[in-house]
Amino acid sequence: MTADLVDVGTDEPLLECVVNVSEGCDPAALSALSAAAGSCLLDRHSDCGHHRSVFTLAGGEDAVMSAAQELSRAAVDLLDLRNHVGAHPRFGVLDVVPWVALEGWPLRDAQGAAAERGPRARDAFARWAASELGLPAFLYGPGRSLPEVRREAWRTSLPDFGPPEPHPTAGSVAVGARGLMVAYNLWLAEADIAKARAVAAAVRSAEVRALAFALGEQVQVSCNLVRPLVVGPAQVWDTVASMAPVARAELVGLVPQTVLDATPRSRWDELDLAVERTIEERLEK
After folding, report:
1. Each residue of 111-127: pLDDT tens digit?
2. How many angstroms separate the CA atoms of 48 and 53, rounded?
3. Is 54 exposed, middle or buried (0-12, 13-18, 19+ CB in 10 A)?
4. In the CATH scheme, what is the code of domain 3-177?
5. Which of 70, 97, 179, 187 fits 109 for a cystine, CB–CB 3.0-4.6 Å?
6. Which CATH homologous superfamily contains domain 182-284?
7. To the nearest whole percent, how much of the chain has pLDDT over 70?
8. Is the full-model pTM beyond 0.85?
């Protein structure tokens, strides 16, 4: 990312957008999607088993909105949900597009009027995706969680914007406003999916969302740490390890510096954490 997009190291609020795309295997498609995101792209995490990629964008409001739109347009043009096979649930070729309003340094969730940047960007993007891409858009956050939207979409609720039926090749999209979050996978040493599901259910809470997946000959407890300063990577590792041996950890995307600072340095390697994988470090490059 180039420094002219945002004045890092000040109290100016920033925007982060984490675009989850239902493509994790095709190198040519992934290269094209990364190119479409432009200079706001801080990180791309791709997983062929989930058949999913997570694109982390951050910077000034206008720049990030433009980057998210170009990436989303490319995804709808290039990808076809009818050919998609992957372990992760998805709304469409764009699964979820959450917006996060940030401020300060190290970064923290924006407060007061600055916090309204998140819902404002969410609504603007959802309207754009509905009108320009023909995507039904479901909204989530802060009063409606993503799991609720997954359960209710097309069953008990219709889209907030866009057509009343899915796009023929791109499906639909969930667009959210949320706080800082850490996406975090723990691979279990024993390939027992029933055990993994029991572990996921046991760690699920207001601070942690968790699902179990069988990926090839391995199983994974996939977590979203939605309050990572309350329950962070070390705490969720220890909780899972108390119920089943953990083979390895996998950070998906980037981690806020505050979460890294709250984690004992002696455990960073074990937990798949590093300074160079923080949002702040990537913004300063």
Report:
1. 999 999 999 999 999 99
2. 8
3. buried
4. 3.30.990.10
5. 179
6. Formiminotransferase, C-terminal subdomain (3.30.70.670)
7. 95
8. yes
Phi, psi of 28 (to 5 degrees): -65, -45
DSSP for 89-109? Answer: --SBSB-EEEEEEEETTTTEE
- Is the pLDDT confidence value at 7 over 90? no
Looking at residues 82-104, what average pLDDT do you find? 89
d(CA 111, CA 159): 29
Bridge-partner residues for 47, per DSSP?
Answer: 52
Q: Look at residue 211 and tell me whether its pLDDT is greater than 80.
A: yes
Q: With beta carbons less than 8 A apart as the criterion, state whether 233 and 184 touch.
A: yes
Tokens 């990577």 label which residue?
Answer: 233
Alpha helices in the chain (DSSP H): 27-37, 61-78, 117-133, 146-152, 193-203, 233-241, 257-261, 279-284
